[in-house]
Amino acid sequence: MDRRRSDMRERIRAVAMELFSERGYEKTSLREIAERLEVTKAALYYHFRTKEDIVASLSDDLRRGIDEIVAWAEHAPTGPERAREILDRYGALLHGVGRDMVRFMAENQPAFRELGFGVSLRYQFRVLADLMTAPDREPRAVFHARQALLAISWSSAMMGDLPLSDEECYAASVDIARDILARN
Known about the structure:
Residues 6-66 form the HTH tetR-type domain. The chain has helices at 2-23, 30-37, 41-47, 51-74, 80-95, 98-107, 109-115, 118-133, 139-158, 166-181. By secondary structure, it is mainly α. It folds into two domains: 1-49, Arc Repressor Mutant, subunit A (Orthogonal Bundle), CATH 1.10.10.60; 52-181. The model has no long low-confidence stretch (mean pLDDT 89).
């Protein structure tokens, strides 16, 4: 039973993100999401009461994943190996659960700002860059670390029009991120 519930939640989130991309967050209704899924609004309400709840669930998954990276990094020895591992883990996170959230951020910026999920995500982003450059946190090194993280983040959202698979975009973004990080 829990597996079916989880599968339906994932389907709802995926369809909602498709519609938010096609029509925009503001112009998409819960009714349209339910229709695309071929379920009743009541079935949809069982899982999510509002559109905001759908986006919040994606944001929560992304934040939880970043928290796991931070927890790991805080106990790992500082240095270039830890920085590369943070990039790898961040890339895997965004390639998986974070991809829809990053696309939502890019394609629905006014709604993203209004919903207020960005503050905690920006803070976590900075924490990752700081962990990548600890203990010195040289400003130029932090700049490169943030740029490396951004290379991964934006490839999740901005490269969908290229004839590359998600795997190819993911691999290329991590390679580029490592190149940026190596500039220190």
